[in-house]
Design goal:
The complex is a heterodimer of chains A (530) and B (169). With 530 residues, chain A is mainly alpha-helical. Chain A has helices spanning 61-79, 86-92, 97-125, 127-137, 139-143, 151-162, 167-178, 184-196, 198-215, 220-227, 229-245, 254-259, 268-276, 279-289, 292-309, 314-326, 328-371, 375-399, 408-430, 438-453, 480-485, 490-494, 499-507, 514-518. In chain A, α1 (61-79) crosses α9, α1 runs antiparallel to α11 (229-245) and α15 packs antiparallel against α16. The model of chain A is unreliable at 1-23 and 520-530 (pLDDT under 50). Chain A is globular, with a radius of gyration of 23 Å. The chains are: A mainly alpha (530), B alpha+beta (169). At the A-B interface, α2, α4, α5, α10 and α11 of A face α1 of B. Chain A: It holds the Pfam family MFS_1.
Chain lengths: 530, 169
């Protein structure tokens, strides 16, 4: 598919053989490679990478990727570190089922608030500081498990540790500044998925660390406290790495760029307004509560469930529980990839259908998990459920960057917060009381997932359409520029504050699907890099 | 019987002892010939099972979670047996009684006796668990926390200073 005007760079995709596969790179004449930029990876006009090279640490794009997902993963490890150790902790602290359930709710509730704040922080200060501050200031909360002596302390500490899950927002935001929109689904899905893996890693890590400390001579009720030092140290290490090796934007750090006048400072109130008045934001808040939310709830209850119901040993239950969280390694990126793949042919409508199908399937498998009576069927159902829920998370964030350009940080934050809210709600409803056994709780949670996924049908973009409706026929409203520029007032447009949004709109045209790509001739206004 | 008597006495795990004595009951047992080993266990009384489904009593013995703590297992002989047992350090806080199971050579329980009545309301004793906390742990925890916050502040201040220097250039 030759490029008629011979725009340098666009015909080079795939030629070097270094690009891994189609979905890992942008091979479309719509996205114009900026050849004046000096980066290890090919970049577009915003200097975002158009290629995703997994095993590279090249500065700044891939380095950002690795710093981002590892620090996010560390936060998952510490937030869910208590879950596999509950059988020991419940005896030390004399907890009841309600206490354990409430602690689980608390562990995901803190970040509802912190994710919202983090969205604003990223918009205003940059994702690097947001991440580092959070990770290092939450290390003390992890260490404070050594002081806990009863239910109240346990719930409080789990609540405080949970704040650090806001690194999700800085992670996704950071990826969006570094990678082009055509591969953002895969990139964000991989970064977040590998981060979420921490919830699985911890189910294996903590029982093993606990066992080692026990064998070294500590009594059971001391050993679990010492075990918490491991996630605490990880926080400190990752915080230092992010500060020393990371940068906010492809061209440098935010503070330096702002002072140099290259990045316009925006007003919080305005950003908040555009985030909150966009109805799509709220649908995503709900949806994410039933993909990510149920994943978090399951992270909290699944080890204890297998331990108690199927009479397994602590580390066996931990191993099975780990499989749930570890499926994120490929499940979430797969969801992002599936979204990118369907966008290739069907544009945004494909992305929406993909999301609905995957998330609903996850809900049905969750129902099956609750009804499984043997260990084998339970494990199979659990794995399928994990694939569905986690791929749905990836597919969600493949769409979120397109909801708004100006308020991306806040919308990511709100959506992330919705995830935690959904988790707190499902734990409260189904897993904290004596009304449902855990297996009944899982079944009802599955039903709720299917119901709460239906609103995807209402998400409509005038330029691209929705699940059941085509794009608008209006010649003005059906352009990407109109949608993204409408977030700026006339005065702001006169000051040229909306340039970033226009560049984004240009790069986002590929969401029109196959009809747009096959009609592609680069617009005459494209700068020819001669 | 616990080493200290009296209403409201709470035994400390890791410190206090209980003395347990067991023998075949005067009414005898039809299955006495099958007794191979006597397993003595520490069991949760009903107050400690409330709101804690992982300690539930089940009729099916392999599902029953009432008596998870092993005290001793001795081969059966017809004489009276006794033991002084120090409450181990991983015993949780709660109310307890003692049960002795007689198992046959296939490790199936064939009979049992317990230190309380059928309704599990008499002769119960309370145990207070160790806290698991240690001063050295607390101190280490504080040290690492302070280090984390300080390291962050040092980096932050340093970078702001460098940015100011850049800007003034």
């Amino acid at each position: 598919m030759g490029d008629p005007t011979g725009e340098p760079g666009s015909s080079m995709h795939g030629v070097t053989g270094r690009e891994q596969s189609f979905a890992f790179s942008v091979a479309s004449p719509i996205v114009h490679t900026d050849k004046t930029a000096k980066f290890d990876l090919p970049v577009d006009t915003e200097h975002k990478a158009t290629v995703f090279k997994l095993f590279s640490f090249s500065k700044p794009h891939m380095r950002t990727f690795h710093l981002s997902w590892i620090s996010f993963s560390t936060c998952f490890v510490s937030t869910f570190a208590a879950a596999p150790l509950v059988p020991i902790i419940r005896e030390n602290l004399n907890l009841t089922k309600q206490d354990i359930g409430n602690a689980g709710v608390a562990s995901v509730s803190g970040s509802i608030f912190s994710r919202l704040v983090m969205g604003a922080v990223c918009d205003l200060l940059g994702p690097r500081y947001g991440c580092a501050f959070l990770v290092m200031l939450s290390a003390p909360t992890v260490f404070s498990m050594s002081f806990v002596s009863g239910a109240a302390g346990f719930i409080t500490v789990r609540f405080m540790i949970g704040f650090c899950l806001a690194t999700f927002v800085s992670c996704q935001y950071w990826m969006s500044t570094m990678f082009n929109s055509q591969i953002i689904g895969l990139v964000n899905g991989t970064a977040a998925g590998w981060g979420n893996m921490g919830g699985g890693i911890t189910q294996l890590l903590m029982p093993v660390v606990y066992e080692i400390i026990r064998r070294a001579g500590a009594s059971a009720f001391t050993a679990w406290r010492i075990a918490f030092f491991v996630p605490g140290w990880l926080h400190i290490i990752m915080g230092i790495l992010v500060l020393t090796l990371g940068q906010d934007l492809p061209d440098g750090n935010r503070a330096a760029l702002e002072k140099a006048g290259e990045v316009a400072k925006d007003k919080f109130g305005k950003i908040m307004w555009y985030a909150v008045t966009n109805y799509r934001t709220w649908i995503f808040v709900l949806l994410y509560g039933y993909s990510m939310g149920v994943e978090l709830s399951t992270d909290n209850v699944i080890a204890e469930y297998f331990f108690d119901r199927f009479h397994l040993k602590l580390h066996t239950a931990g191993l099975i529980a780990a499989c749930f969280g570890m499926a994120n390694f490929f499940a979430r990126p797969a969801g992002g990839w599936a979204s990118d793949f369907s966008a290739k042919y069907f544009g945004m409508r494909g992305r929406l259908w993909t999301l609905w199908i995957i998330q609903t399937a996850g809900g049905l498998f969750c129902v099956w998990l609750g009804r499984a009576n043997t260990l084998v069927t339970a494990v199979v159902a659990m794995v399928l459920f994990s694939l569905g829920a986690q791929a749905a998370c990836g597919a969600t964030f493949a769409i979120v960057p397109f909801v708004s350009r100006r308020a991306l940080g806040i919308i990511s934050g709100l959506t992330g917060a919705g995830g935690n809210f959904g988790s707190g709600l499902t734990q409260l409803l189904f897993f904290s009381t004596n009304q449902f056994t855990t297996e009944e709780g899982l079944t009802w949670m599955g039903v709720m997932i299917v119901g709460c996924t239906l609103p995807v049908a209402f998400i409509h973009f005038p330029q691209w359409g929705s699940m059941f409706l085509p794009p608008s026929k209006d010649p003005v409203k059906s352009t990407e520029e109109h949608y993204y520029a409408s977030e700026w007032t006339e005065q702001e447009k006169q000051k040229n504050m909306h340039q970033g949004s226009l560049r984004f709109a240009e790069n986002a045209k590929s969401e029109g699907g196959r009809r747009v790509r096959s009609a592609a001739t680069p617009p005459d206004s494209t700068p020819n890099n001669v | 019987k616990p080493s200290r008597e009296g209403a409201g006495v709470v035994l400390d795990a890791g410190i206090d002892k209980i003395s347990i004595t067991w023998k075949l009951s005067s009414t005898g047992s039809k299955k006495e010939a099958e007794f191979k080993t006597i397993k003595v266990k520490l069991c949760y009384a009903p107050p400690s099972q409330v709101d804690r489904p992982w300690r539930k009593t089940h009729d099916e013995l392999f599902k029953d979670k009432t008596c998870p703590h092993k005290i001793v297992a001795r081969p059966y002989d017809k004489t009276t047996q006794s033991i002084d047992w120090i409450l181990e350090r991983d015993i949780p806080t709660g109310t307890y009684f003692v049960r002795a199971y007689a198992v046959d050579e296939h490790d199936h329980e064939v009979a049992f006796g317990q230190s309380t009545n059928e309704a599990k309301t008499t002769s119960l004793f309370s145990v207070q668990a160790i806290s698991g906390r240690h001063k050295s742990l607390d101190i280490a925890s504080v040290c690492f926390s302070v280090f984390s916050v300080l390291a962050l502040l040092v980096f932050f201040v340093n970078e702001k200073r460098k940015a100011k220097i850049e800007q003034s250039k």
